[in-house]
Amino acid sequence: MTAPAKVSIDLGTRADGGVATLDLEELLATRLLVQGNSGSGKSHLLRRLLEQSAPWVQQAIIDPEGDFVTLAERYGHVVVDARCGIADLTRIAARARQHRVSVVLDLEGLDAEQQMHAAAAFLGGLFDAERDQWYPLLVVVDEAQLFAPAVAGEVSDEARKASLGAMTNLMCRGRKRGLAGVIATQRLAKLAKNVAAEASNFLMGRTFLDIDMARAADLLGMERRQAEMFRDLQSGNFVALGPAMARRPLPVRIGPVETSARNVSPRLLPLPEAGADDAHLIFTPGANEARFEAPRRPPPPAPTADVLARLARSAPPAPPAAEPPPSISPEQRQAAIDSALREILSDSDANFRTIAVLYQDFLVRCRIRRIGGEPLSLPAFRRRLAVAHAGIELAEAESADSPWAEVLAMAGALPEDMQGVFLSLARAAFDRRPCPSDADVASAYGTRSPGRARRLLAYMEERQAIVCRLDQRGWRIVAIPGVAWETEPGDPGAAAATAEASPG
After folding, report:
1. pLDDT top residue among 407 and 329
2. Which of 165, 242, 306, 340 has the fewest CB atoms within 10 Å around its CB?
3. What are the chain's domains?
């Protein structure tokens, strides 16, 4: 379908009876924030927007409650079960952008921390798509306060930072990549301010808390005394403002939708008519039910003095003596650690897993091998992993007269997440192999974005860790200052290597 010069989405009716429209192309450039307490019609509004825009633009929906999976039957959205795995979610998101398929990420059934990890991985896959796949994509995130919380909650810092970073990328940097964020929240006060501030269009629904009403009034440019109006809004009524809808606050009522959510609001139903004897049916087991047994009443508690006396007379049983781990030499211990590191790096998804996850995997492998002694700290593990990834022998690296000692010192001056890439470049230069392509550098850094790889190389060159130049064909050569190592020319646009060249 060929889109006209301007696509106007019918949201519903204005207060004067006219049609409330939304300029879809303007929305793609300016983003949208929807706010409303539970029962205000917020999900209904998102469904209306998705249904009206489905023929014109690709859509990706982050759905924490499974409300929008019903769009699949009517509009052909593909439902993605978030339980398939973090690495799979990133790959599916990249393929969705490549093939321009509308998708619904169904997060129902996951706990809060799992939802944050899954959403971060999926949004990361959308964000890191190749440049030639930056087609317009409407990214709708329901209950955005779960994924971009204003303050730390009960989830881990790792999950919160990953999710908040993905939401910030969507709202702050997504426009150039074709991503148009539409975020909806029940509480503006619970939503991170740097995420909410990037929206230029607003639809504010019913809210009751003073802090949320005040923030809604501020975003709409209204006076604080006018904030009381948000308390009186009926379900399905919103105040619209923004370049895609209206230049002044405009009351609108959202129109009907063609699909419905699986989960509907509970409604009152009359109780069944029952006789006096029917009330005792709760004590009678059904045909396919185990016999009901009333729980026994616990005995009265013993006096405190008796409990203390029994505790004084009884000693706790001695725990069984743990079998000591077999003693191994320092060389055997290092060999076992190196073996565990090689197993981790043999996983094709290792580069795309967080360092914390890899570290936990490493500790488990060490326990399986019964490697005694003090375990490696996280910084030491990160450094050993970078050395192993580059194919550098530890004994060679730790030797004072080895040129690798100087290279490792140069790596230590770089941020920790860049050290593995630098050592891989140094290894290629030492072996006189062709310079790794942008795709290879991106893979070593844990991303699929060649643009990010080029920025990484430029940063290293600014820090004087490497020197880059091009030959007559435009192929790249990387040199390591100080040790005078230099790679052979390599095509920066080549595909990622299927396997690392063996060091040597």
Report:
1. 407
2. 306
3. 8-254 (3.40.50.300), 326-389 (no CATH), 412-504 (1.10.10)
